[in-house]
Amino acid sequence: MHPWKNIQQVLKDRADSEKPRSLFCYSFGNIHIPNEITWTIQRLKQFRIGHPVLLHFEDHWDFILWFWSVVFAGGLSVLSSPLSNIEEDRHKHIQNLSTLLESPICFTRSKFLPFFGNSRDIHLHSIENVIGKSEQESSHADNSRTYGDNHDAESHLKGHNDDPTSNFDGVFTGNGTYHSQADGVKGGDLLMLMLTSGSTGNAKAVCFTHEQVLDAVSGKAAMRVLPRDRPFLNWIGLDHVAGLLEIHLQALWLGVDQIHVSAADIVTSPTIFLELISRHRVALTFAPNLFLAKLVATFESLQQSPKLDLSSLVCVTSGGEANDINTCIAASTLFSKYGAPHDVITAGFGMTETCAGSLYNTRCPEYDVSRGYTVASLGKCITGIEMRIVTSEGQVAASDESGDLEVRGKVVFKGYYRNETATKQAFAPGHWFRTGDRGFIDSNGNLNMVGRAKEVININGVKIVAADVQTAVENALGNRVARLVVFSTHASHTEQVTVAYIPKAFPIGDQEMMDIARLVTQACVIRTASRPLVFALREQSIPLLPVSTLGKISRLKVSRLFEDGEFAADLEFHHQTVLRASGAAKQMYMSGSKPENESEGALIENVAETLGAASDVLDITSETSLFDIGFTSMHVIKLKYHIEPRLGTDVPVVLIMKNPTIRALAADIDAYMKQSQGDSDEPATIEDYDPVVIIRGEGSKTPLWMIHPGVGEVLVFIGLAQCLAQDDRPVFALRAAGFESPYQRFESINQTVDIYTAAIRRCQPRGPYALAGYSYGTMLAFEISKRLNADGNKSRMDLGLSQRAAHNSVQASPWDALERLMANLWAPDNPDGLVFLCVAENTLLHQQVAARANKNAAVNTDDHLSYGVGPRASPRLKKALVPFFNSEFRPSEPVLEKELLVLPGVAAVIDALTWAICNEGQGIITPAPFYTGFKPMSAVRAGGVLIPAPFKSVEGYYGLDDVFDPILNSKSLERTLLQATPDGVTVRAVMISNPHNPLGRCYPAETIREIARFCGRNNLHLISDEIFALSVYHNEQATSVTPFVSILGADLDKCIDSHLVHVMYGMGKGFGATGLRLGVLHSRNEGLIAAVSSISVFGWVPYVVQDVWADMLEDELFLGDFKLENHKVLAKHFTILRSFLNQQNIPYYSNVHAGVFLWVDLRRYLPGNSAPEPATSAVDANHDGEIRLFKRLLKAGVVVSQGSSFGTEELGWYRISFAVEDQALNVGLQRLGR
Q: Among 68, 108, 437, 907, which is 20 to 30 Å from 550 by CA?
């Protein structure tokens, strides 16, 4: 039993020991007293005890220093993994971390700051600024540093005893602030968070307690006897659980020295690995299977064996991927040749969630050879964990029976940080953690793996989702292939991304095959940092593809076919074809594409570094265009930071932007260097400025000239240029002057247009010209176009529409189709016309409403033919609306006139609310399914983004009744909010329809309160569309009926600030008069009412319409009679539709009592279906079947609403309205029955 309660005590005791140990860091050693940094951290404004602090470093010493500093400061260290090379993925990851960690502090080096983009929710601090740049620079003077032992351990690790704020025991300072006290930290307290790989979605943060970590390193240390006087060697990043727990903390726990070296040094020269083991007499280290294979291959190629002594080596832990037994044998032989024991390799299994290695095979490879295994066993559990295999039936498997691996114990994590949903999904009853791996336990109790439950590709220990790679490849290829599949194969001692595709046409040309292989390789390298195996399928091999009835290709089955050699002929055919095509390419390379000088060669390596791969893997030449190999704006910045240390000077971004090929960029950089070192004082004039940035210099189509937005920079065009990669069109951009010396900014628009026009003519002397302006650039494009046309040239340009207008102008208008259909409505005198059962409109009491409206209807010249009091509601209408709202909505606090605003319909209210609440591109969450109008009403003009909150994937969901469950609503909304943030969408509101459209049921009060609590916690607006509040009827067969409760009367005071709650009501729906459009907004947010009022002039309800409604609302007798009659006729027509569906044996959602429609299940009638099937995911299903059924019904003369337009998760559901005149309803149902 270890004596420590927390990890601080371990470090303190080791620092206090009579024989303190060494920490030896190669390459980037650095030392500062951790206590001083701890004090600095605690003084930061955003720092809070126990809250996450993100650490993003690549250097071992940075990680160690700041990890311990945060721990002793009382913060919660979060070790950040390397950021993706793909800008979109990186942005999503950073946004997810920001949300998950609640806008944390982040410490990093200044060179990494640009990669966090413009995220304002993470409080970034460069460590150079925190502890002094000069000290940092001086500390990097040596190639290595040693800390501890005879190297001033007492001062560097223990601190100054006379400083009351800098010792490991912690103190209270004069102002009462508490500074870390190790003895006060309990074993169950959180120590740190580590991020999962995110291979199956957003990265999650695994919680580690002090007790859990101490138990884990104790169990690891007991796995085999280790000498107490020999060090550990680590070359894995400390953001990885293997580097931190297997090496750093275990060495600290045992009290032995530890050596850290950069992975780049080890991987590029494997011999250094053994040299370091020999030099430092290392006892334990780590090496995955791929590195072991590379190590063996390197030593086999050596002409002379080095002098090494590995007799000190006791254990080489190997994990993260499957260990090939032949590799283990060869590596064991190599180690033992230099004095190590033959069983030095210890294959193991571990995850972030299990504190790294938790099972070890200490008899590798002897045991595995005796059992005939081709992949090494993973051995038995350490103390503190147990395992089991569970079959698909949920039973514990017998020996040698395959199933899902589950583990539990005190070293297994207890949950993900702030992610209750993921935590619940991760554990089976009994707190067994579902690892996601499949395997079996042999008769000796050793674990053996057989694969993953999810389709991931394990490359050098990094798990990558196959579907993500496939998406990247599909985006890169566009429509160049008919179909493709990405799957995993075994090659080169690890798994390999393999891409098989069906050509668009047969036979495929040699050059086309080579081009496709190049594009696939580039996409995979950027996504996975590894080169894929690519091949085209021949015609005769296409039938071999295992395609399901839904058209899906099974990756697992394709992989097995590949391993069985079924595609050997395809591989050979592809290989020979590419060889032929590459012959000409090689000649071209030899004649001009290879590096001509040292500058080009160095720049090629810088580009490869930027993309995180070797140059030979990327197949980069001097004529390679940066933007053809996936460069984004962030890659441009990253390349700049790779070039500058090599040259020792700043490199302007414009040089990279203006020279897309390696050769051109190298030449321009050389010229820039010579110019910057020259002595010429001759001033540059603005007329000399060249604004042209060549994004793509070749192509046969009319060149495209893109003109910058107001800021003047052109990085914004890089993404568009990549989309135009296959367009065979030269693409240029014009960049403003003034970003770099010696040129000043333009003085006028005329000067700008003169210089830009001259530059265009210089590069393209004759038209036609194609110009596109972005935002402010549209005006410049227009002026340039006039200059070019004046010379007799033809130019065409973007029409200058805003992005929203340009998008909307090319969309198919729903009103065009509606007008065509409405021209042929069914009527007794038009028996072949269409019956509309698709519109949520109540026509049952049209005659009564019309009669009441006509009773006092008269156009008043003073009130109706003038501006009156302005666009807001008339005093008469407001006065009539107040008692109506107080009576029908039963608010907790009376509604006041000043809280009401009217617009022409609820559509206008939603548009105005979105405009007032959301900036363009910000989001509104709505539970699915949702009213189909929510999307265009919030997006078309106001630019909002509607985000559906799904239920089917929420644990505990069993059917549509659960859409109204308070707990499931909270879970669905929480998960949707978490997923929206990484997607780059800032959520501002939640919008519901109550009663629900299309489900026709009222929300229970407790569910409303739970939704309000969610909004309150996240400072989101809550919008309730209560347009069907008066459309409630009796359904005697409903098993669960909830009376209508408005959010105004749901007692939300303790749930949410009343200023965030807004109600919408449309008079036309409730009174069967949708043509008399009047939408009412209620809000107690005076600022919001004022904002919406400011644009109400654009949606002015005519005073004659306002008076019609005021007149009816003032007539209490009419209101009472109307409500009774309305409830009666709605119940009658609902019963007619329900009886029809029961007779036809058509399922429908039955717990309804509100609205004018039913949610009907027509899945069995979808083309290809003969019987009801399980619900189909709206993401994966084919919408074509639903559309074809809609058209079939249309041909029969009846129009219904497709479920997909409501964001349904189950295709094949339709909304059918019943509040139509009797004869029309009967005709429509007869046609539906046919």
A: 437
* Residue 342 to residue 340: CA distance in whole angstroms: 6
Is the pLDDT at 618 greater than 70, yes or no? no
Q: By CB neighbour count within 10 A (0-12 exposed, 13-18 middle, 19+ buried), where does 139 fall? A: middle
Express each pLDDT in 731-765 by its tens digit.
888 888 877 667 778 888 888 899 899 888 888 88
**Number of compact structural domains in the chain:** 5
What is the reported pLDDT for 183?
Answer: 54
DSSP code of residue 823: T
- Of 790, 797, 720, the residue nearest 754 (C-alpha): 790
Domain boundary among the residues 1047, 1081, 1114 is at 1114
Are residues 582 and 600 both part of a single domain? Answer: no
Closest CA to 476 of 532, 513, 517: 517
Pair (821, 875) in one structural domain: no
Cβ partners under 8 Å of residue 384, min gap 6: 215, 216, 218, 219, 358, 409, 410, 411
Q: What share of the chain is helix, strand, coil (3-state, %, to 5)?
A: 40, 20, 40
Angle of CA points 873, 878, 883, to nearest 5°: 155
Could you tell me which residues come within 8 angstroms of residue 880 by beta carbon, excluding any fewer than 6 positions away?
A: 1109, 1110, 1113, 1114
45: how many CB neighbours lie within 10 A of its CB?
Answer: 7
Q: Which residues pair with 772 in a beta bridge?
A: 706
Residue 892 annotated in active site: no
Q: How would you label 1185-1219 residue by residue, b for 16+ Cβ within 10 Å and e otherwise?
A: bbeebbeebeebbbbbbbbbbbbbbbbbbbbbbbb
Of 70, 64, 71, residue with least CA distance to 238: 64
Tell me the pLDDT tens digit for each residue of 439-485.
999 999 999 987 665 567 777 666 777 877 887 888 778 778 888 89
Q: Return the pLDDT at 548.
A: 55
| Alpha-carbon distances of 856 from 852, 876, 1104, 1108, 1221, rounded to whole Å | 8, 15, 11, 8, 26
Provide the residue type at 870 as one letter. G
Distance (Å, whole) CA 769 – CA 168: 71
- Pair 1007, 876 in one domain: yes
CB atoms within 10 A of CB 1184: 11
Which structural domain range is residue 713 located in? 701-723+731-802
Cα first-last separation, the chain? 78
> What does the block give as tokens for 614?
């070797």
Tell me, yes or no, whether 1135 and 1004 share the same domain: no
Question: Stretch 373-385: mean pLDDT, rounded?
Answer: 93
Structure-block tokens of residue 567: 């595609």
Quick check: is 563 in a domain? yes
Q: How far apart are CA 8 and CA 181, in angstroms?
A: 9
- What's the chain's length in residues? 1234
880 confidence band (pLDDT: 50, 70, 90): very high
Q: Does residue 263 fall inside a structural domain? A: no
Do residues 1003 and 921 both lie within one domain? yes
List the beta bridge partners of residue 63. none
Rounded Cα distance, 1030 and 1145, in Å: 30
For the chain, count helices (H), then strands (E): 43, 42
Q: What is the pLDDT of residue 1227?
A: 93
Sign of CA dihedral 585, 590, 591, 592: positive
Amino acid at 869: V
Helices 568-588 + 510-528 axis angle, to 10:
90
Q: Is residue 1043 part of a domain?
A: yes
Instruction: Tell the residue number behind the tokens 């009679």, with chain if given.
Output: 1121
Indicate whether 603 and 748 sit together in one domain. Answer: no
- 12-33: per-residue pLDDT in tens? 777 766 565 666 665 433 334 4
Kindly name the residue from 554, 775, 1058, 1093 that is annotated as catalytic: 775
CATH number at residue 583: 3.30.300.30
Residues 1162 and 1090 in one domain: no
